[in-house]
Amino acid sequence: MTRIGYGRASRVARVYVLITGIISCLGPTQTRSPIEGVIQMDLLRVGLVGYGFGSRVFHAPLIRDLEGLAITGVFSPSQETRDRAEGELRVPSHPSLEELLGSEADLIVISTPHHTHAELAIQALRAGKHVVVDKVMCLTLEEADSMIAAAREGGRVLSVYQNRRWDGGFLTLRSLLDQGSIGKPLRVEARWLRGGGLSKRAAWRLDRTRGGGMWLDLGAHMVDQLLQIGGAVESVFATQIFSEPDLNVPTHTKCHIGFKSGLQGLVETGALTPFPRPRWVALGTDGGWEKFGLDPQEERLKQGVTGWPDDYDGPHGTLALNEPDGDGVETRETPTEPGDWRAFYVNVRDVIRGSAELAVKPEECREALRVLLGAEESAREGQAVSLA
Length: 388
Prior knowledge:
The protein has 388 residues and is an alpha/beta fold. 35% of the residues lie in helices and 22% in strands. The chain is built from 11 helices and 15 strands. 43% of the residues are buried.
């Protein structure tokens, strides 16, 4: 197979990270930010709420790798966790959220069980802090509205950690669609499937009342990605399988999304599939594209390394185009656009400084939550749910 080249989306992301990193090194300014009460300064101080797997692997390494951001404190109710944070980060730890909020931190990053997100975020926003909360944003639309209202009332930044907008596969898909490589897009499918049953790593992840389950976790990423492509949602129809009778979270969810644009979407999560399925599929009037494999940045972060691997060798995607005479297809390998999850925190930093527009808006994440909840309703009722 031959490779085809493109790269607008990821080149923009890489240049953005590079340029803003250089600017951050030029020294502090005293320009007033449009965010109320914030003056652009050289360093933004970050307080972490929670220091479990998510905070240690997905947040702290990225923050520490960027100019202009510094972790200055950690809150955890667990003494053992506080000791670990102090040892690994060399910063003070706090036994209460109030103590952390009373510190010098400008930005609070919340990586805790999903059912705690709203209360913690609102408390931090009302204390005058900017907030990043892990996905899923929260568990109800009412909670989302309260979080957004608190941010607006205080003139503070609120964002949700949708780092997978900077996945290599997603950037590749966006580039292909922008270029019209498959013609008019008709259907986009996103899957996160594996075998072996549900992970027992944390008890709360097996309890829907605390926001557990793969659908609210990984589904939150993929629904967000599809909304970036398809826009306004018309309806959802979903099915769920509960194969572990003692648990109230599904082991498999398949959600069909109808967009007002006419695009069809599919999001599928599950732990019942012991063989490879494509991570991405896109179908259009001129052909289609598929890609297997997960983004490599997660495994690198688990090893303490940030950024995209210089030697990434795939799996890359395959573009299949219809022959003009309708007789067969031509297939080409598509090199994967380098992703960079650091771009999320670069953007948050620059928004607080007043030099950028927020990339991941809380209103967008509220809409993703509406789709996630609509899918659960559809699965319970056995029929499509209108979201128009």
